[in-house]
Fold each of these.
Amino acid sequence: MAKVLCVLYDDPEDGMPTEYARDGLPKLERYPDGQTLPTPSAIDFNPGELLGSVSGELGLRSFLESQGHELVVTSDKDRDDSEFDRHLADAEIVISQPFWPAYLTEERIAKAPNLKLAVTAGIGSDHVDLDAAIAGGITVAEVTYCNSISVAEHVVMMILSLVRNYLPSHDWVRKGGWNIADCVARAYDVEGMDIGTIAAGRIGLAVLRRLAPFDVRLHYTDRHRLPDDVERELNLTFHETAQDMVPNCDVVTVNAPLHPQTRGMFNDELLGTMKRGAYLINTARGLIADRDAIVRALESGQLAGYAGDVWYPQPAPADHPWRTMPHHGMTPHISGSTLSAQARYAAGTREILESYFAGQPLRDEYLIVDGGKLAGAGAHSYSTSS
Ligand code: NDP
């Protein structure tokens, strides 16, 4: 029987909700590209409940315990001798969400001789050292597509809120003011702007589709070009590299995975080639941007705004400079963890576990590493350091 170690974020400060803002969730049939939603044999939760925090347990306890497996759930993951470290020593499966990642470093993997499967309840498995997972024969899987649209919606919200200066204007209302000039002195329309995405995968393409009705000019760069008919439909300009694209854009959104090719991409040099007063939205991974270069660009006015929900490390320390830099719209890592997304990735996690325990292959689109190499979605979108 397997020991399953699940690392989740803390419950709300006032305890688990006893009621929710809405009843249930809209029913989706399929993802936009036709991929089916998760197909576990059953679920033991009500879609729309908080599942991603410790007491939510991703709705997995009764399923796992009814089969004789042990489930350990903790949020304690980073301090020396954390509960995560203690249980990792004999865990067969580790589950964690990118929002509160259980960093599976090479050192930790070396101390986990029984580890066979690392599941990302969400998308983005960069918290796992993929080279070490490959070397250790560990399968890495994620719930591909589960929250891609959740993030795309968040990106559009952040673009509008930065360009239109929404957050400072809202603050004036809360402070009892009616300071229109203070609010509008940094407010612009999105209409007519050039907006580009670094990567046009599931999230990046969904962002482009959602922005098209705003009468903007759309740009993208990606390792693989989109089909001609999609480029024509959205009137997209393709650029071979990020370096080619960003000088043309008023707004850039980052939607690529973190891997050796994208780490540190937005450094002083690349930021310096952007239009003065451009906006940068990064909901992909914190380490794709150079932390201090972002602060410098906001302070100098090279960037007019920066928003996103991804940091390094997570949780971000209280003194992280992105909490206090000017003109930012940062949130904790939330865009992919709406109640809507949680229902999908909890079901997808269960689907992955059901396949694993039955000795059946995992869906190819869920795989990042398998059989000692990048596999499935991972073989398409990631790279290794070698
Ligand atoms: P996809 O795999 O659908 O898309 C990723 C895209 O990035 C692919 O088209 C890939 O290209 C492209 N890409 C990879 N490397 C580069 C590069 N060096 N330059 C340009 N393009 C590149 O994933 P999603 O769109 O669903 O998610 C993307 C990322 O967003 C995740 O990996 C994760 O880091 C982040 N994310 C954040 C969330 C949040 O809550 N904030 C939630 C979900 C995801 P190709 O495959 O063509 O080679």
Note: The first helix runs from residue 61 to 66.
Amino acid sequence: MQTTQVQAYRAGLLHFHADPAFTPDAHHWHEDGLLVVADGKVQAAGGYAALHAALPPGAVVHDYRGKLITPGFIDTHVHYPQTDMIASPAPGLLPWLNTYTFPTERQFEDPAHAAATAEFFLDELLRVGTTTAMVYCTVHPQSVDAFFEASEKRNLRMVAGKVLMDRHCPTFLQDCAETGGRESEDLIKRWHNRGRAQYAITPRFAPTSTEAQLGVAGELARAYPDTYIQTHVSENEDEVKWVRELFPQARSYLDVYDSYGMLRPRAMYGHCIWLDQGDRRRMAESQAAAAVCPTSNLFLGSGLFDFERADQAGMLLSLATDVGAGTAFSMLQTMNEAYKVARLKGSYLPALRMFYLATLGAARSMQLEGTIGSFAAGAEADFVVLDPHATPLLARRTGHTESLEELLFALALLGDDRTVAATYSAGRMVHRRP
Ligand code: GUN
Ligand code: ZN
């Protein structure tokens, strides 16, 4: 019988058991901590002194003193096919889609191109410490196979789905209600819950789906209740106006999705900028979650997410990059911009809250608490090693931080891929900074 090899990691240890916006002492912090891992799962997380004494003989201790370990970051909204078009200029969402996005996504008809891009994309996620993402593929089912094949090879927990889009887009990217539905169901059967893969039913957004296609998406969501749903909502004022014209019977943009049964746990709505209070209440009540995408929203000039109103309504929140409209893969850079967006709306996001949103908050939004996003015993051992001395400036600033909040704030505001010394997935090192 093979004995289990225990691996332990000594560093500052941070994770959460609750939302710091609503619960005092929502975080666990061990300045000299130990994360104990066996069989790809967390066995224990706590103070070094206590846990070290209890390690079994043969346990290997990795010394990351001076660094900080947190659960792997979770990016709840990102488009892998848009990797090559990041930083493409356009005056707003709709021209950006027509000028860059659709021609770029056309290339994913070619499985070899899809496979090569998926590998680069996953390298990039791991380089910035992102261990789980909710990923849009393209309308081509082969783009989903390529993505899941690449993530399965690395044993990553990933959610992805085929874009459904049967109108208001170039014909070379159009499916139809019937084929899109059939292809999605085939992909669910092939990939959902295979290893660490999970499927997301992915209507691009209401303007590019007919009522028939939204109906099919809703039926799939009912037939496979533990799959995810992901789409865009209320991102841009021109888009909101367009939806009002296309769906005059709907109370609001969000209500279009609601009327097709797409507000439920495991539904992830990108952006949510132009929601009203009724929409926010429906989000909270249905346990659908918002993916807040600050770098994308600033880049396209879409608007500023209202954290205060979202919190008042009790919405599930997470942070996301939305690359290619997002301008960075790094969740640290995403926090940096989220902080400024909150300030511009007159509210305030402490660094602890931002680290929560990028870890446990996202896991809760995905109904995966206990599986990812924290160091609860039995959770999958996905974690990042952050280096407060990664750059001369970070070292200089963190050399005199006086609280955990100040340290995390410096990491969020000054950090990027260089801050990630190593990334682990299911207990295995999947990136080490050169
Ligand atoms: N709305 C519909 N499609 C997209 C997309 O690809 N990116 C963004 N940011 N918004 C969208
Ligand atoms: Zn998006």
Note: The first strand starts at residue 6 and ends at 16.
